[in-house]
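Memo to structure team: turn this sequence into structure tokens by end of day. - J.P.
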Amino acid sequence: MGVAKRMRGSDQPTALRRRGLLLAIGAAALPAPALAQGAARPRLPLVVLDPGHGGRDPGAIGAAGTQEKQVTLALALDIRRALEGAGRCRVALTRSGDSFVPLKRRVDMAREREAALLLSIHADAAPREHAAQARGASVYTLSETASDPLAAALARRENLADRAGGLRLPSVSPEVQRILLSLMRQETRAGSERLARLAVNALDDDVPLLRQPLRRAGFVVLKAPDVPSALVECGFLSHPTDEAALRQPRHRARIANALTEAVHGFLGRRSLAARDDDARLG
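Reply from structure team:
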């Protein structure tokens, strides 16, 4: 598929480096007591899973009546069970039932909780002009310029609102804040690309992939400037073979296991160190 197998990530995740940037640039603005506080017990990194659609928004609907909102929730619950079973991270879902959650709120949930990453789960329907060839899983990162017409069409279909504001920056000059925001966006973009490559590599072992499976588009849910994010299209409900597969628990389990592997690869040693500390401290 043109994507190198088992790409090895750095030992220091993007979320940790991002917080290092905040400390380095904002240290002069912090009161001395805040810097002198004792080191807190490390917490397991938080992974936010975002099952697409829900409630009054069914998402795509396949020819056999399969609703995207049902598939995405089932997949997210499978991934949560696998991640929690491994004990290397905490997991939160943007929805755990059949409820409607606006796109802005999904992004806010990850940012407010200082998530290490956000993984948005979908199973869309391709536009009619792409329906014949659109089959298999693919992974998207954010770009205002779509990588191809199909990516652009899917992003237009998903996006209902845009995202702006809300960053918590240190009390420093506007010029320093602009520098910090630029550095933060660069770190987040690099982390998102790494997460997407890990996801494609893991999925490639277990499920069919769309041609050119690593793609970019302007999905709103990927627009957090400080949380690495990727959107996984687990297949196309507009294709009868994909729809039939996504209805099968065994196929969904393969996807969940692959994405669990990708998350663990992204979190790297940070999650193992936090888990070991938790075990030692009881």
